[in-house]
């Protein structure tokens, strides 16, 4: 639930609860006030009646529908009754208020005695009139407030929305930021409550920017600094191998040395690529690319490696025009096709298929190698992870960064990589699923 809706519902609930609590308290107060007012009326009426000397006047004729009922008794004999059916006393002969039941309802009664004439005046009023008066007073007071609740809801909703507008602007600013944009957020007319949040966010952006900068500089500088000594070491190892060509033991050791140097050089190059293609730091230049042309270029660059193993590679399907970064997508395809060649035996088949399924462009690379167990599908995308470690069954050198780099490039394009078993070539099948309708032209 949103904060705006939550605050609106809470405020309406509180207003409604307070309104009904006030109505209950008002009802009680109204009943007390009504009791006092009607008791005074009963007392005044009894004093009027007791001072009447002519008991045969027309004003004392029976009135069954009157709001009051009264009786006048003298010498224990009923002289006047305002209701013709009441022949007995409507209350006890006491100078006090009491409540009695007659004529199928509850009555509030009051009596007064005039000793000089031995006369009692008893007056009664229905209690329901008091309840009706109290209810009418409460309804008159509460009804406008209840009817105004929908209007209050609209006003509260607008006021809460206005109050949360700075927070919504902050959310929009954060949403509009790109992955590599760590510049501070500046908002005009900033409220005091939001200032600590904005200050904390800007401090976090500053620390993240510094950390990313240190990481970029370290990876780039370390890889570049290692390139030169590795190149020199590679040349010297080659020259030394030529000089010691007649010693078989030395040749074996030199071969191991050259393989180690090659592996280290490969690791350095992969670290550089990983640093350049990190989605959080990479600034790619997206432009229209034809997948068929891109695949042909990558296959041509890797053809010497494929030919050296006497392998065959085929490109099937019609290419599609997509929006992407040509350099990074080329690295991704180069990693996939190169891995397919490395881990497939000599004379095997590699297939690259371009297809469109449900308006989604897919680039599929299949090989004839041993494939990967399903339990390893997620782990192979981790950095520096290799199945079997350095003792990979294929004895193919590697550092475990190729698929990690490919995954980063796929994330850069909002695409996904799907691993499975190739049905036709029985090796590994890797599908690059480009987002539907987002990059196609």
Q: Could you list some keywords that capture this structure?
A:
Beta-Lactamase, 9 helices, Heat Shock Protein 90, five-stranded antiparallel beta sheet, 441 residues, five-stranded mixed beta sheet, alpha+beta, rod-shaped, 12 strands, 50% helix, 3 domains, disordered C terminus, Helix Hairpins, 17% strand
Describe the structure.
This protein has helices at 3-50, 127-147, 149-163, 165-176, 195-243, 248-276, 291-308, 326-342, 402-412; strands at residues 69-74, 77-81, 97-102, 105-114, 119-126, 287-290, 312-316, 321-324, 349-357, 360-366, 416-421, 428-433. By secondary structure, it is of the alpha+beta class. The protein folds into three domains: 3-150, Beta-Lactamase; 195-275, Helix Hairpins (Orthogonal Bundle), CATH 1.10.287; 284-433, Heat Shock Protein 90, CATH 3.30.565. A five-stranded antiparallel β-sheet has the order 2-1-5-4-3. A five-stranded mixed β-sheet has the order 7-9-10-12-11. It has a two-stranded antiparallel sheet with strand order 6-8. Residues 437-441 have low confidence and may be disordered. The chain crosses the membrane at residues 137-160.
């Amino acid at each position: 639930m949103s904060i705006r809706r939550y605050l609106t519902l809470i405020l309406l609930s509180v207003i409604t609860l307070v309104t009904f609590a006030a109505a209950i308290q008002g009802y009680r107060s109204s009943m007390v006030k009504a009791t006092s007012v009607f008791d005074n009326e009963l007392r005044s009426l009894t004093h009027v009646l007791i001072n009447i000397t002519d008991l045969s006047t027309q004003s004392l004729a029976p009135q069954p529908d009157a709001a009051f009922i009264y009786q006048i008794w003298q010498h224990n004999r009923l002289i006047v009754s305002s209701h013709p059916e009441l022949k007995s006393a409507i209350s006890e002969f006491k100078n006090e208020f009491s409540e009695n039941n007659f004529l199928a309802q509850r009555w509030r009664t009051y009596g007064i005695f005039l000793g000089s004439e031995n006369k009692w005046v008893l007056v009664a009023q229905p209690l329901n009139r008091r309840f009706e008066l109290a209810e009418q007073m409460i309804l008159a007071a509460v009804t406008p407030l209840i009817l105004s609740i929908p209007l209050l809801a609209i006003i509260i909703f607008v006021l809460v929305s206005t109050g949360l507008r700075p927070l919504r602007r902050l959310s929009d600013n954060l949403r509009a930021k790109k992955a590599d944009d760590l510049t501070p957020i500046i908002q005009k007319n900033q409220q005091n409550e939001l200032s600590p949040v904005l200050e904390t966010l800007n401090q976090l952006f500053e620390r993240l920017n510094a950390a990313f900068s240190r990481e970029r500089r370290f990876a780039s500088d370390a890889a570049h600094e290692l390139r030169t000594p590795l190149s020199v070491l590679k040349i010297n190892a080659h020259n030394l191998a030529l000089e010691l060509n007649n010693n078989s033991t030395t040749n074996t050791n030199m071969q191991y040395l050259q393989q180690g140097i090659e592996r280290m050089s490969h690791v350095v190059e992969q670290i550089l690529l990983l640093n350049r293609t990190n989605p959080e730091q990479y600034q790619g230049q997206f432009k229209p690319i034809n997948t068929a042309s891109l695949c042909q270029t990558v296959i041509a660059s890797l053809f010497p490696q494929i030919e050296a193993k006497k392998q065959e590679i085929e490109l099937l399907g019609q290419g599609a025009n997509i929006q992407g970064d040509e350099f990074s997508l080329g690295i991704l395809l180069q990693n996939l096709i190169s891995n397919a060649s490395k881990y497939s035996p000599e004379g095997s088949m590699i297939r690259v298929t371009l297809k469109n399924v449900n308006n989604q462009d897919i680039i599929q690379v299949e090989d004839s190698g041993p494939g990967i167990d399903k339990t390893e599908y997620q782990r192979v995308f981790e950095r520096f992870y290799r199945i079997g470690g350095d003792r990979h069954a294929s004895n193919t050198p590697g550092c475990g960064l190729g698929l990690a780099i490919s995954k980063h490039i796929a994330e850069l394009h909002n695409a996904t990589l799907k691993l499975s078993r190739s049905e036709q070539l029985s090796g590994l099948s890797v599908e690059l699923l480009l987002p539907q309708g987002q990059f196609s032209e």
